[in-house]
């Protein structure tokens, strides 16, 4: 499982605050093309996020994990869950 955490590191106080968390879980495919279940958790701090309440969920199918950087997978996961200006369910053209 890939865990993506968004943290704010305050330049004023030095405090670190977790703002968001996503999970990307490999659920199948092959070495060439992998499928993932994705979810973001509800909350804006670590204590709330630790409750593991799913806010949104989705999937990425046919991701070429060996050919593309992990940031491409993160972008597909977020778009597939409706985040971003051009959000749409991800469909692999491969």
Describe this structure in words.
This protein is an alpha+beta fold and 94 residues long. The chain has one domain. It has helices spanning 46-49, 70-80; strands at residues 2-9, 16-29, 34-41, 54-63. The chain has a 4-stranded antiparallel sheet, with helices on one face. The mean pLDDT is 92.
Strand content: 35-45%
Question: What count of helical segments does DSSP give?
Answer: 2
Biggest β-sheet description: 4 strands, antiparallel
Shape: elongated
In whole angstroms, the N-to-C terminal distance is 23 Å
Rg (CA only)? 15 Å
- SSE pattern: EEEHEH
Mean pLDDT: 92
Task: Supply the helix-strand structural class.
Answer: alpha+beta
Can you tell me the residue ranges where pLDDT is under 50 for at least 5 consecutive residues? none
Write the layout of secondary structure elements.
Elements: E1 2-9, E2 16-29, E3 34-41, H1 46-49, E4 54-63, H2 70-80
Quick recap of the structure?
With 94 residues, the chain is α+β, with helices and mostly antiparallel strands. The protein has helices spanning 46-49, 70-80, and strands spanning 2-9, 16-29, 34-41, 54-63.
